[in-house]
Amino acid sequence: MSIRKFFVEYRSEVVFGLALTAAMVLSYILAPLIPIDLFRKIIYPVQNTAIITVLLINTWTMARHSEGIRARYVHAWITGTLSVVMIAGTCYRMYVNADLQPAEGIFGFEGWEMIGGDLIAWLLLAYPSELLQPGWLTLKSALKRIVPVIVLGVIDMLVPYDLRWLMALVPMVWVALILKHVRDYRIYTEENYGSVEQTDEKWVVRYLLMILVLAMSYIYLCFSDEPTRLFTQQWLILFAIIYTNDQIIFRSKPWIEEAAKETVEDETVTDTKETPTGSNAEYRAKLEEWMTREKPYTNPEFRLMDLRRVLPLNRTYLSQLINAEYGCNFYQFVTRYRIEDAKQLMTDHPDMKMQDIAEQCGFSSPTVFARIFARETGTSPSEWNSHMGGGNRKK
Question: Which helix or strand (DSSP H or E) is residue 181 part of?
Fold first, then answer.
């Protein structure tokens, strides 16, 4: 995906990230105006208490609403671990290093503190990693990300060169890697689902943008000598935790989590299927006849695996058949049928409500219908109906 297409596809997410970045910059500009004693005695303890409280509540609610989804167990474990880390860090800064003075040298953080910061970043990024790649979180995968940070910290203490700036960049590198997984997940959903709204990866993009802003703030912390610099990082962390828990628990469907569970089930079933015995032309004719007669695409939850009702192929062969015969993925294949069906309805029933057309054609909502129709045809449904559909004929 080009940069231009990314900004078009994820424009609301980009605005979200830019707004959060602007708030972060403004907060850092205003933070030095906070009296140090006020920050040390009241603001900082209140912020930490709020974070720890929210983390503990999140751990409890996530455990109660896990619904057998491994990624949610992972998130409960993450919030529980973060609460322990935050408690330990608060005790250190309040009782061991109560004056909150920055360390000597260029960096405000010492090497061991930066290792701790990177470990917190790893915990925050473990959830989307597990979400996009079910079963990803293992001891081996954890060590692959954690060990390099620890090694950098040790080398930094042994050599005369200051390598801590490398540790400051680690969270941003991790975010970049997971954004690649988002792209791969988008490809997977479009190859397997007729509607991608219920497997919406855009929320994960917003989550990663929050972590990216936190990573930028973290880099500033590593270089700054400003005693009140922690003010901004604390409220950013609190916002990220509250926003994340709300999105995970209070969505109408567990979207990505459900897709992750179905992925494992589908792979288990399709591995036992035999290789194809017919030709692509035969399969294509059979598929098109079924699509025209039964109109399975009118079901918003229509999936690639539903094609097994008429084609004795596993997931891999079904996907290859769609790609080879139609030059597109399954999502695009289904969208074409839905768009053509919508055009026919508008031609035959010019006074039909767009909400009813969207529902009958398998779109999850009128908004989704309007957006996809405009993207595919270059015009809105109402404009098309007025100029090319039944509305024009009626005139």
Answer: helix 164-192
